Amino acid sequence: MPTLSPAAAWGILLIAGLCEIAWAIGLKYTEGFSRLMPSVLTLIAMTASVVLLGWSLKTLPVGTAYAIWTGVGAVGTAILGMLLFGESREVARLVCIGLIVAGILGLKLVTK
Length: 112
Hints:
4 helices, 80% helix, 0% strand
């Protein structure tokens, strides 16, 4: 894979984070990897997420990229958990999700 421009690396990292959300939510639907199609799709999303993260690391600092990747995954998964599975929407939980978003934005702003 060719080296990425910084803008492309950030875009690839965002897609990797979205794939992380997909596999985390997908795990719920696999029912312990006992359902074939959700399991296959979850494994594809897992693979894509890690491969895209690795590709973005050719350009981005590992600490920043990894923190943003996990942050995007955590925030997206928490939000979808609320929307799809009726998980808690307590104010304290939403504040904590907001803090993760602030951390992601902060890391992006201080990284070239």
